[in-house]
Amino acid sequence: MGYSKEELLNERVFYHFHQICQIPHPSGGEKALSDFILKWALDLGLEARQDPVNNVFIRKPASPGYEAAPAVMLQAHLDMVCEKNEGSSHDFSKDPITWVIDGDNLSTGGQTTLGADDGIGVAFAMAVLEDKTLSHPELEILFTVAEESDFTGAVGFDVSWMKADYLINLDHACDREILSGSCGGMDAEIRLPIEHRKLPQDWKTYTVMITGLKGGHSGEDIHRGHGNANSLLGRFMAEAGKRFTYGISAVKGGTYRLAIPREARADLSLAASDYGKLVQLAEELQAVFREELQQTSSSLKITVEEIPLAGTQVSPDKIVTLLLLAPDGICQMNEVLTGLVDTSDNLGELHMDGREFRMVFEIRSAQDSLKYYIYEKIQRLSSLVGAKCSTEVEYASWHFRANSPLRETAVEVYKKKYGSEPTVLTVHAGLEVGCFFEVKPSLDAISLGPDCWNFHSPSEMVSIPSVRKAYGFLCSILEELK
Questions:
Q1: Which tens digits make up the pLDDT trace of 238-286?
Q2: Could you confirm whether the keyword Metal-binding appears in this record (predicted)?
Q3: Which residue in 7, 275, 389, 399 has its CB near the most CB atoms, within 10 A?
Q4: Which of 79, 148, 187, 349 is catalytic?
Q5: 112 near 82, Cβ under 8 Å?
Q6: Which among 30, 140, 147, 460 is annotated as catalytic?
Q7: Is 147 a catalytic residue?
């Protein structure tokens, strides 16, 4: 079935999502969207306030006949991951997100992230708030900031504002599932001091680019074998060192620790007479990497381009050691839930300036002990080459509970509404629910949402029919909680 933009804008969820897409809202830059929603809620006559970090909290009274029902909080995050393809001129600080409708799916046509994570969740809650025909208990709506960076919003929220013991998080990406747990996580950053040296005579400088990988969410896609451009760049430089002498003048890989890197590059300086070896290596490893990733990254490319001569170079030895030995990908599978990743990390970013080489990781685990174990491995690796390792961001896991009246209600509603049993599971991604559980252990929580794919990449898309289904499911749950 084909859809038009005009048709979608006649539906309140899509209308609100489109408004969200017009307002830039990267992590750390949510103020404009936060202000917009606060004013919108106050104009509706709802009780609403904004806290010092720009979270927005809104309260809507219970419908007639639901006054005695337990209060329910709906929660979604305002910020989005800003990823774009190489060559895109999109400016996330000012440009609106462009919609492309392809069959049943809504995307940006592969140019940038869409922001369905979690703009669709925000739109769900806004549609519920303005609907005067929907029956529901007293509602508390929390829109948080910085979920995609350091969980500042969830950690900084004053839970004394909450009455609710039921929490429905709107940040899941499959309409056939009810999420009941998530992993915790932390970042890690290696900083290696570098020493510049002059280039030998008759050397030239070339940019080596690895592009065409699929990328994706560093938690939910870590098991899909999409390949990591930063790790592949390390392998390229290690092999280059076996064939000729070179120095490094620049490195850049990935853009965000929460996204699996799709692209990476290094500026290498070497003798002009070794140029042919460099090109041959690029051709050979392009074929090798395509073979290894033939199902997900068959369009992978390694290109070599001469650039203006670098002023200085850095020895590749320590940098290559870090790249080759850095843990990346799945570290341990869950021993109880078959097919679920328990612990992983993602080498998300590479940077190099005049003073240091930096590597940024995202570590995820359902168990704190394994989370710290991976961090210690990274820490010890850094000390072997004289680098420093630090962490600034840590967030709690949301542990599965065997007894959950809210989940039981949601399961029964799903079976009655759709004639099948939903899947109840936990996910290898960090959700803000864990932060709320730390300070309010009495919470009973679930997470739900429509079918979305390729979060944290320009291939992000959301299913239009699934948005309708998931929103209907949410409304039916609220009506049942009498």
A1: 999 999 999 999 999 999 899 999 999 999 999 999 999 999 999 999 9
A2: yes
A3: 389
A4: 79
A5: yes
A6: 147
A7: yes
